[in-house]
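User: Sequence in, structure out. Go.
Assistant: Echoing your sequence, followed by the C-alpha cells.
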Amino acid sequence: MTVDIKELQPKYFPKRVKEITDPPKKLYVQGTLPSEDHKWLAVVGSRKYTNYGKEVCEKLIEGLAGYPIVIVSGLALGIDAIAHRAGLEAKLPCVAVPGSGLDPKVLYPSTNRRLADEILKAGGALLSEFEPDFRATAWGFLQRNRIMAGLSDAVLVIEAEQRSGSLVTSKFATEYNRDVLTVPGSIFSSSSTGPHMLIKLGATPITSAADLLEALGFSAEGGSAFGGKQRDYSDCTSEEKKVIELLQSPLSRDDLIDALDIPINQANALLSFMELKSLIKESAGEIHLS
C-alpha cells in the first residue's frame, strides 16, 4: 500500500510554525492540515493519567464541539490519545505530531496506529519534522514538543508531574508567546504537581469548557459549564428540573438529597432514573450534570 506522505518546504509551513525561533528545516505531512483561521489548541498530559484526568480531558473537549478549533497532540499513550479521541468524537479536526517518522512501519507508538488512521479518515493530519522512516528516540520526543507548541495558539496541560515532557511543551509555549492553560487537580496527587506549579508561574487555570473557550477568544454565553451549547431540558419532570437547577455546581449525593427535601428512598430512585437517562453522572464522590 502506498503511503501518501508529502514533504513541506519552509515557505509552505503553517504560519504559526514560521514564527518560532527554532523552526524545522522541513516538515512531512500525511492527510490534510486544517484551516489556519481556526484556533489550534495543543492538549498534553501524563501517560499515567488518572480517571479524573481522563474525564476532564473528555469533558473539556466535548464542550468545544461546534467551534472552529483544532486539537493538536502527540499521539502518545495517555492524555494525548484521549485528547485525539475526544476531538474525533466532538467532530473537531485533529493534528497528531508523533515523535517518529510517519511511515506506518515506524509510527510510534504502534498501539496508536489505528488512532492515526482514524484521524486521517476524519480529515485531519499527521505531521513530523523527522524523515518518514525515523524511529522514535528519547531526544526526538523533546524535539517534537516544540513543534506542537509552535503549531498552536495555546497549550493545555492536563495532569503532569514536575519532570515531564508536558512541562517541556509548556516551556516552549511560553518562549513562543503562546498561552499556557492548565487544569487544577487534587493536592494529594503527584499528577497535579505540574499544573499547580504552572498556575503559580502564571498559567491560566481551566475548570470548565467555558473557561477554555474564553481563553481561546470565544464567547460561551448561554452554555453549560462543560459546553458551549445549552442542553434542552424541556421534557424533564418538575422533580428532574429541580435536580438540574441544584447541580449547576456538582454536589455530593448526601448534600443533593438534603437539598431536594424529599424522602431518601424517593430521592435515590429519582437520581438513579436520571442517571439512566444520562441527565446526571456520579464520579469522584460528586454528582454533576452529564
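User: And one key feature?
Assistant: Residues 239 and 270 are 8 Å apart (CA to CA).
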